[in-house]
């Protein structure tokens, strides 16, 4: 069973940014890429030399605001069973004219999405997973293997992927809540993922958005946090490589791409 909004939502999820090769113009020291370890890329980076990075580990993408709790309480009562709770929550978020969700390209946490009533597929998934779990529903993040979706932002190409919500009910009937219902197909491969992997997606997206805006140090901090959450997440290694390349460190970029291939040897983008 697939449940979704009437609007078509494209996803800005697991963003990989390509293009826009920039150089600082400085005469930068070069290091052979085979001498640069994954740890050096994250903890001895020339991008953050002498700068203390912001601690992003305390950001809770599934935080529930008081307004969200009150909203859920208005639709779900204690006597409702699991299936009824899911239907009531779906009606509250997707069937009630008072709650309108609009797409934009910004990645948001659960409370930010609820407050702004907008976001991309990862934003909406953050919000729905947080609300469902608060309502006593077993909800999980699920990656969806869709055909490559490319878009252009300035001089950069964006490769976007998709995520939705997997619901496990006590009745044994699985459900999928998908905000891109018009494009989602049951024939596509899916994989339920841990929350740390979802957090890696979040910080990766934020890092990509910051990199596109020219904010190098905050972008690096978010890519670093994404890889601390899940070092096997290849898209972030690729984006980190792109950030190094933009800033004039080709050997560090190559080392990051190679790290991406080590965790995903089939990544054509890393190749």
Blueprint of the fold:
Layout lengths: L1 E2 L9 E7 L18 H6 L22 H8 L8 H14 L6 E2 L6 H7 L1 E2 L1 H14 L3 E16 L2 E13 L5 E4 L12 E4 L1 H18 L3 H14 L4 H13 L3 H14 L8
Parallel strand pairs: 1-7, 3-4
Antiparallel strand pairs: 2-6, 5-6, 5-8, 6-7
Helix pairs in contact: 4-5, 6-7, 6-8, 7-8, 8-9
Would you give an account of this structure?
This protein is of the alpha/beta class and 271 residues long. The chain has nine helices and eight strands. The protein has helices at 38-43, 66-73, 82-95, 110-116, 121-134, 195-212, 216-229, 234-246, 250-263; strands at residues 2-3, 13-19, 102-103, 118-119, 138-153, 156-168, 174-177, 190-193. The strands form two sheets. Strands 1, 2, 5, 6, 7 and 8 form a six-stranded mixed sheet that branches. A two-stranded parallel ribbon has the order 3-4. Helix 4 links the parallel strand 3 and strand 4. Helix 6 (195-212) runs parallel beside helix 8 (234-246) and helix 7 (216-229) runs antiparallel to helix 8 (234-246). The two termini are 37 Å apart. Mean pLDDT is 83; it is low at 1-13 and 20-26.
